[in-house]
Amino acid sequence: MATLWTRGIQVCRALPRLCTAPSVQRRTSVRLMSTEKDNLLVDVDSKTGVATMQMNRPPVNSLNLEFLTSISIALEKLENEKCRGLILTSDVPKIFCAGLDILEMYQPDVERLQVFWRSLQDVWLRLYGSKMATIAAINGHSPAGGCLLATCCDYRIMAPNYTIGLNETQLGIVAPFWFRDTMCGVIGHRETEHALTLGIMYSTEEALNIKLVDKVVPQDKVIPAAQEKMKQYLKIPEVARQLSKDLMRRETVEKLRLRREDDVAAFKNFAVRESVQKSLGMYLEMLKKKSQQKK
Ligand SMILES: CCCCC/C=C\CCCC/C=C/C(=O)SCCNC(=O)CCNC(=O)[C@H](O)C(C)(C)COP(=O)(O)OP(=O)(O)OC[C@H]1O[C@@H](n2cnc3c(N)ncnc32)[C@H](O)[C@@H]1OP(=O)(O)O
Predict the structure, then answer these.
(1) Which PROSITE patterns does its entry note (predicted)?
(2) pLDDT at residue 31, as a whole number
């Protein structure tokens, strides 16, 4: 296993300049260190060119601005390093990713809110539009933005007894068009309409039935299964595989590229609505109560 150490990613609170370019030193294996502790662990196998990216932002890998920025920078570096494959997974037990950090959207600083949304767009553009073969090794719950990350990948392998889905409407918010398009590309229009309007969180087994995930394996086999599937992708001539993926995804990618700022404005205007803030406040309260009951 070869390691590429990326150090010194500094995420500045000052806006709009978010971060300095990380310095990269080639060593025997790759570790991309994030700003907030080691919340993103990236190892690259130098023989296969396959990177494994583990999200590690306890308690639930929620995607705040800094975390999204780290993911975006890491994806850019892997692409620049000409990595051939990416396995996206979690280092947090029982959670793949809890989606967007709701605290970014609740009682927000409006300028930060917009930078936050752009950083999510960046991650989506890089992951959905990646030249790498991408596999989500879903080893925990995966609501909303977590489901988005998984559906951006080319293939999904999930462990039993978790949940996945775009549950936004249950929070009183709306998944934007590029979340919808991503899900449509995986499960089709009718099932996406059903899923989005009801905010359905599918069990692993249900997700397999509607092909939201491709394969279910026991928890300890999720990453090995992803590594095995990756071999199949890597056997395909690289350019043919990449161009085929591009053919399938380019229009969807371009749609957001062309509408980025309109999308930021729509998000901001929607998020600051009183009714939306009220819904988010109630949802956070519900999460807090549930969490306290466990303690
Ligand atoms: C028409 C124009 C449209 C334009 C766009 C408009 C709107 C924008 C849409 C934006 C799209 C949004 C996408 C999202 O991703 S929203 C986030 C949705 N996520 C969720 O609903 C997940 C909520 N969390 C859970 O269901 C559970 O936490 C869990 C992931 C299943 C894990 O359960 P468990 O292990 O039992 O952990 P706890 O519930 O006890 O949680 C531990 C602590 O973490 C806090 N938490 C959980 N999730 C989040 C989150 N997403 N953000 C921030 N914080 C989170 C939870 O409150 C606990 O905190 P505490 O211990 O301090 O109380």
Answers:
(1) ENOYL_COA_HYDRATASE
(2) 54
At 97 the pLDDT is 99
Cα of 28 from ligand 1 centre, angstroms: 37
- In a 13 Å sphere around the CA of 131, the CA atoms on its Cβ side amount to 15
Active site residue 64: no
The response to whether residue 267 sits with its C-beta less than 6 Å from ligand 1 reads yes
Pocket of ligand 1 contains residue 143 by CB under 6 Å: yes
**Residues 167, 175 contacting (CB under 8 angstroms):** no
Where exactly are the structural domains of the chain? Answer: 40-294
What counts of helices (H) and strands (E) characterise the chain? 10, 13
Would you say the CB of residue 149 lies under 6 angstroms from ligand 1?
no
User: How, if at all, do strands 163-165 and 202-203 pair?
Assistant: antiparallel
Which residue is closest in CA terms to ligand 1's atom 27? 98
Class of domain 40-294 as given by CATH: alpha beta
Ligand 1, atom 11: nearest CA belongs to which residue? 175
Positions in the chain whose pLDDT score sits under 50: 1-28, 32-35
Per-residue pLDDT of 211-234, as tens digits, reads 999 999 999 999 999 999 999 999
The interface predicted TM-score (ipTM) is: 0.97
